[in-house]
Automatic annotation (TrEMBL):
Species per Swiss-Prot/TrEMBL record: Coccomyxa subellipsoidea (strain C-169) (Green microalga)
Protein name in UniProt: ornithine decarboxylase
GO cellular component terms attached to this protein's record: cytoplasm
Location of the Orn/DAP/Arg decarboxylase 2 N-terminal domain: 9-239
Pfam families listed in its UniProt record: Orn_Arg_deC_N, Orn_DAP_Arg_deC
Gene3D superfamilies associated with the record: Alanine racemase (3.20.20.10), Lyase, Ornithine Decarboxylase, Chain A, domain 1 (2.40.37.10)
Length: 367
């Protein structure tokens, strides 16, 4: 089960708007589509970055008006575009002339941001290899959109998930400024929205260097009073630290090794569940033992600690959470907690092998 700290979520929101007062956050729903989290953020005035019709419907069901949604998937099927149009979700992204043609046909009232490529090469997950128009191609795409009558309202970019180089935002904002200037030369005078994407995280130390870089770049290229609206798409920033996953110990095996005693533990969740990020999101779980009858103080590892491996519940031999970690002796029925596991965890779970990983329980606290 998960423990979600809604109080911390509210504090993260307050930190965001204080650090970058000109930037309106649009929560990336894909990161952790928990209804209570989304309701909390909606009450705080955030917008929402949705990437599918299901995410759009989930946000609208909270009473959020469609104007506070950006359909931020640059490539959509005709059916998905029609769904957004039917729900009156107008703001969306595109990165090619082909996508502009689809939008002109299936959603003629769409308000489109051209997504450009602006990668942080050090980001944990690079997105530019799949999405984002090369800046050199932007004039041709904008000209095609203008000819089609598409309402281009701005520019978006995403430097990469869990960005590590704050200067990537400075470069990206400068590139976006150039694309806005191209749009103006083509007569696209509705381009008044800059979407600086995601890449922020509350865990990576460099996060608090980002606001200073962003604010300075905005002041240089989009100064206050210039008439531009600035939005962002933080997901990991809001979700990562607020979620702690607790897994039950379902099985145990002890072994004697040349270096001492070791233990293997089978947990109630694994690689096909909330730990799927090990495969695609560079997740590094940090287990904390919670013995039911002997909870250690301050997470201290008591004497006699063992080297342990933690396995998921499925019959797949690759279902391994971590190996060679130091943990106190645990028994069946004890728990292992994994803090900072709110981002890109449960959102990607599946019920492989018949083990329930999607329908986990959520408990909420306010600290």
């Amino acid at each position: 089960f998960y423990v979600i700290d809604l109080g911390l979520l509210a504090r993260l929101h307050a930190h965001f708007v204080a650090a970058m007062p000109r930037v309106t956050p649009f929560y990336a729903v894909k990161c952790m589509p928990d209804r209570a989290m989304m309701s909390t953020l909606a009450a705080l005035g955030t917008g929402f970055d949705c990437a599918s019709p299901a995410e759009i419907d989930a946000v609208l069901s909270l009473g959020v008006p469609p104007e506070r949604i950006i359909y931020a998937h640059p490539v959509k099927s005709p059916a998905q575009i029609r769904h957004a149009a039917a729900r009156r979700v107008a703001m969306t992204t595109a990165d090619s002339s082909g996508e502009m043609e689809k939008l002109a046909h299936w959603h003629p009232t769409a308000k489109v941001l051209l997504r450009i490529r602006a990668d942080d090469a050090s980001a944990l997950c690079c997105l530019g290899t799949k999405y984002g128009a090369e800046v050199a191609d932007a004039p041709g795409i904008l000209a095609a959109a203008a000819a089609l009558g598409v309402d281009i309202v701005g520019v978006s970019f995403h430097v990469g998930s869990a960005s590590r180089d704050p200067k990537a935002f400075e470069v990206a904002i400068r590139l976006a400024r150039g694309v806005f200037d191209v749009g103006a030369s083509l007569g696209l005078h509705n381009m008044r929205i800059l979407d600086i994407g995601g890449g922020l995280t509350a865990q990576v130390t460099g996060i608090w260097d980002v606001p200073g870089v962003v604010n300075a770049a905005l002041d240089a290229h989009f100064p206050p009073g210039c008439g531009y609206d600035i939005i962002a798409e933080p997901g990991r920033y809001f979700a990562e630290a607020v979620g702690t996953l607790l897994c039950a110990v379902n099985g145990k095996r002890e072994r004697q090794t040349p270096t001492g005693r070791s233990a293997d533990y089978w947990l109630s969740d694994g690689l096909y569940g909330s730990f799927n990020g090990i495969l695609y999101d560079h997740m590094v779980p940090t287990p904390v033992a919670l013995p039911i009858n002997n909870i250690p103080h301050h997470n201290e590892i008591p004497k006699g600690a063992t080297t342990a491996s933690l396995f998921g519940p499925t019959c797949d031999g690759a279902d391994v959470i971590c190996r060679d970690v130091s943990l106190p002796n645990l028994d069946v029925g004890d728990f292992v907690a994994f803090p900072k596991l709110g981002a890109y965890s449960w959102a990607g779970a599946c019920n492989f092998n018949g083990f329930e990983a999607i329908g986990v329980h959520f408990f909420y606290v306010t600290t």
